[in-house]
Amino acid sequence: MRGPTIIKAEDDKTKQLNKHNLMAFSGEAGDTVQFAEYIQANIQLYTMRNDTELGPNAVASFVRGELARSLRSRNPYTVNLLLGGIDPITQKPHLYWIDYLASVASVPYAAHGYAQYYCLSTLDKHHHPDISLDEGLKLLEMCTDELKRRLPIDYKGVLVKVITKDGVREQDFDNNRISIMSKRQAELSLEEEELSMSSSASKKARVEDGDLPEDEARSEALPLRRANGQDILAAAEQEGEELEEAAQDQGAESSDANIDDDDDKPAIAAPKRQSAPLEGYSDLYLDTINREILDFDFEKQCSVSLSNINVYACLVCGKYFQGRGPKSHAYFHALEVGHHVFINMGTKKVYVLPEGYEVQNKSLDDIKYVVDPHYNKEEVAKLDKEVHDAFDLAGNRYRPGFVGMNNIKANDYLNVVVQLLAHVFPIRNYFLLHDFSQPGTPQLAVRFSTLVRKLWNHKAFRSHVSPHELLQEIALRSSKRFTLTQQSDPVEFLSWFLNNLHLSLGGAKKPSKTPTSVVQAAFQGHLRIESQAITAHSDTQNARLVFTESGTINSQTTPYLILTLDLPPTPLFQSSNRESIIPQVPLTTLLNKYNGITASEKLAQRVRHRLLHPLPPYLLFHIKRFSKNRFVSERNPTIVTFPSPRSLDMSPYVEPNPDIWPHSEPILYDLVANIILDPTVAAPGAHEEAAADKGVNAAGGSSGGSGSSSSSGAGAGSEKVSWLVQLHDKAMAAENSRVQKEHAGEQRGPEWLEIQDLFVKKAESETLFTKEGYLMVWERRKVPGKANRKGKAAAK
Ligand SMILES: [Zn+2]
């Protein structure tokens, strides 16, 4: 609007931004020209650089963004704008109404300034989505007619520009003609009055409708100011914190009041309310989302305030920020860095900042899923039966459940334990399916659940995960006993973790006969310990020491989660070629510790162990390699052999109890996971080199991880070890046996996978025991009809 002062009668208040986009502006004289030229230059620069033309919605978003930024500066531009254009791809016309408060709306027609008081009612009445160019020009005449009659200042006529798919052209328009279409007779044949450029611009976009498919935004025919007002109202309600929006709201309301001034206005359909900006508007920002860098693995903690309350993740750079209201860290991040799309880590709602409205768009669902993958029972039931290929963003195939895990510094001891537990099916299924969302759930359970669900995510952006969030909680809960910077013993960690997980799931503190958590249900069994005191005295004749066993045998039953297996001592002397004669021992020999016959001496006691029925569904074997505590001692490199990862018979180690299990019937277990240690032998003083080598290896594999492990790891002194885990892919095994039935000898994929930090590789089941196993999980094989075996036996 030129205002009451006419500076120049034929002033052109439009700027052509590119071939198909035209901007009309009104407002403070200096601001308008300066801002319009700035926008024009930037849009043209974009076209030159990218050799492609921005569509009207992209231009509108850009203009709005610039205006929003200036609004928050010390010298905001006071500019009202109309943007008209044809989308170069869809060939559809668009018109955007933008005001000096940087609110934007896509509209079928629009006007700014004083002219809108006179024109909008006419436009409301006569505009329709299929309007042709000629009809549009007639409508424009009716509008200028109104202005000539009613605007109390000298009217200098309008300049009409038309945007078509061929570009922008000026349209001849007779400014002196008085339209007779108007119902009202022209009593005052005034001279032309000034029409704000905006209303002419609005016309331009509209006239394309004739030869173009109906535009959605247009067919809704919603009066812009209302929609806009409602939009802001809704946003303000949701937020309750955006002062600027309230201001905008008021501005919109006041112009709203003038809508129905014209008396011959027909009642129009109730305007559709919108709670989010029109489509297309938000699209530009959604394009800035950078999925490649998103994983949400790190602890949800504001990168500025370090608070974990009300945290949003920036979807452009992946960082976390607190809050989204004005003066919040996310808000400032949006202003300072220009990243506009944020997701609330709790509610998973996506917002555009600094404006603060919520974006609801299907295209965000994948991100919401990655934040919090979830499963239903059918999906979980299929995990171990069917192989479905999954692909990450880079298009690489991966097996859900068998993905690498970041070794942040020296947390491979934790990674292998998490991988192992994520393949103990009752544990996994519980954490995949259980809802941990209620407040007050201990973080240990929540974060472990999140990690397990990410491990099995079939829609992951990246085919590896980071245990950072869980690690932070573990470091806190264990009072820094287990951290990501210090290597630890996986078994020590596992027993700490199982106990704490058990408690955080509400398990009973006191030992109980029946399991009180999923942890106990999976692993807990009972064993009998019989002990006999041994006393030594000297023989009267030979003066030799003689041992006698006390006649009384103490017998007690204790629960266990992990069974410790002792290795036979290694030979005292070592051959010069030490590598070639690594001692071996069969697993069954180690298990004889529990046969109730083999006894061991311990603190002047002779002790015998025997497992009791019923055996747990999963057995954890800890092969005791470190002879003293932690890592300050000898490591026993003996290899534990077993003929097959399948069909380990545990029945010889269980005290017979015919009520529960028929005597001499085998109790078969199959190997599920095997944590092994990978000793990297290094000469004293060569630690750094070894560590460096490892780091290089790891870095070569992935951008996201560091694979180096700390030199203070197990066996520190002359050696360091790193941990890896071998996992059985049950679904692949099932698939393979199906395939083999049809085509003998063929395999669909490897049944055993070896995971070391980020690296996942195939492992041959025949060579599983060739490395130094440390912790094994064996799964009890389900015997068909086993559950009602007792009943059957009785029936016979
Ligand atoms: Zn960012």
Secondary-structure map:
Blueprint: E1 14-18, E2 21-27, H1 29-50, H2 56-71, E3 79-86, E4 93-98, E5 104-106, H3 115-126, H4 133-150, E6 160-164, E7 167-171, H5 197-206, H6 216-220, H7 224-239, H8 243-256, H9 283-286, E8 311-314, E9 320-322, H10 329-337, E10 341-344, E11 350-352, E12 357-359, H11 365-371, H12 377-382, E13 390-391, E14 397-398, E15 404-405, H13 412-421, H14 425-433, H15 443-455, E16 464-465, H16 468-477, H17 490-504, H18 518-523, E17 525-538, E18 545-560, E19 562-566, E20 584-586, H19 587-591, E21 595-602, E22 605-611, E23 618-624, E24 639-641, E25 648-649, E26 668-681, H20 687-701, E27 719-728, H21 730-742, E28 752-756, E29 759-763, E30 772-780, H22 789-795
Parallel strand pairs: 15-16, 19-23, 20-24
Antiparallel strand pairs: 1-2, 2-3, 3-4, 4-5, 6-7, 8-9, 8-10, 10-11, 11-12, 13-14, 17-18, 17-22, 21-22, 23-30, 25-26, 26-27, 26-30, 27-28, 28-29
Helix pairs in contact: 3-4, 4-5, 7-8, 13-17, 15-16
This protein binds zinc ion.
Family: Belongs to the peptidase C19 family.
Main location: nucleus
Region (Disordered): 190-224, 238-274, 695-715
